[in-house]
Amino acid sequence: MSDKTMSAEEAVGRLRSGMTVGIGGWGSRRKPMALVRALLRTDVTDLTVVSYGGPDVGLLAAAGRIRKLVAAFATLDSIPLEPHFTAARQRGAFELEELDEAMFMWGLTAAAQRLPFLPVRAALGSDVMKVNPRLRTVTSPYDDGEEFVAVPALRLDAALVHLNRADIRGNAQYLGPDPYFDDLFCQAADTAYVSCEQIVDTADLLKDAAPQSLLIKRAFVTGVVETPGGAHFTSCTPDYDRDEPFQRAYAQSARDPEAWRAFTDRFLSGDEPAYQAAVTAFHEERT
Amino acid sequence: MSAPRTNTPPTNTPPTNAPAADAPTTNDATRAEYCVVACAEAWRDAGEILASPMGTVPTLGARLARLTFAPDLLLTDGEALLIGDTPALGAPPETVEGWLPYRQHLALVATGRRHVMMGASQIDRHGNQNISCIGDWARPTRQLLGVRGAPVNTLNNPTSYWVPKHSPRVFVEHVDMVSGVGYARAAEAGPSATRYHRIPEVISNLGVFDFDTPDRTMRLRSLHPGVTVEQVQEATGFALTVPAEVPYTRAPDADELRLIREVLDPGDLRAREVPA
């Protein structure tokens, strides 16, 4: 029985510059932030990032690690615009492959199913076709003869996701209301790293949860990282909600280079325990 | 209603066929409350489908519709749950009747059993909508949300729009990045694009608009009381079709006003989106 547990440093230590990396969660919800923070401490860059974008995209964009972004949006949910993403786009910091939310899902599905594309009724007539010259259409071979967009497979070198619980073999469980697309990210990737709030015995996974909460199967997992608070400051229900005051501070750090430097000095210059300690201090100062 | 004509010169003449004297005794309804009722009307006769409102006023509209004339609508809590009761904004539901995580929501769009009301940073006379970016897409002057689900929404289920602040910066001659597909673009793209394409309504703080014209361009359907045709034209950056007679938007009745004020929005969040 293989033990896939590793540290966040070991997990991101397997990433290389130039890779295509998928990041799970949605917006500012259950993002593998501890893995992203660990990634920021490496010199890995030139990444193609594939994400239903939130502060994962914002942090990597602000740090200049993204060569190309594949996304339908980037948002902080309670703050509609991701300010580091918008700033990076406005200075032309990276290439964007802008897809629709549904196209993105079918692109991941195609990759997981080892298909070159899947047909969708989307994007026709929109400027998504104009800004994505690689998109092709496909005509139904049946009598209807309808034309669809052939969404290309979004195959990934690596996937990073964060769930509530996992066992040491990589079976991973979500306990909140939405699985997002984390299983698809893992299936679409050559390697997948699952961080979690807590590693538990396999036998304990279903002690107080239904079998359908077992979202990710170990056959699709390369490494398991236990990192409590690993989605902070995004939500990880039911373990914790989004840290709204901290998210506001993060958003304000996009105002100017000075503010961003102060934020990184305070929160992102050390390791994960240092980050969590700085967050605790941040909240103590507010009370 | 007489045949529509375009480029109507601005006029100070108030609209005719205004509500008669027997209109409900609800003339203290605020502009925001008229907007809520106008949004609710978008889901009248929609049947057993998902109403997907985006923004405060559309959310109130969808909930009001379900509590009154569209009881079969499905509604979410804004996350992954279908709510069985119809609570106030921000309040948790007492009953959950279903599960709709993002993966199912995106797939449900293609079933057509949904009418979404999206926002629009820009919208043009053909109904093309933009929420992606302002300026040149390659390096925008202002990056916005991204296209989100607008391209798939507009080709698969009825898509209406809500604009809380009607201005020439929103109602533009040409949008910078077509996210939601309008009528002319859909027609150019062919039968697969037009098959399920429909933009029933655009609702703003000034009035209600539709595309019920021969060339499927935007038409003023009704004015909210207190708004003139001239005011709408000044706030619109393209030539709007204005029928010879423009009715006023229907007033909320007494029961609707009670539901909005006491049940759905006791905190008056609607006034933050549409100030009195």
Automatic annotation (TrEMBL), chain A:
The lineage of its organism: Bacteria, Bacillati, Actinomycetota, Actinomycetes, Kitasatosporales. This is CoA-transferase. Keywords: Transferase. One of its GO terms (molecular function) is CoA-transferase activity. Pfam families: CoA_trans. The keyword Plastid does not apply. The keyword Transferase applies. Coiled coil: none annotated.
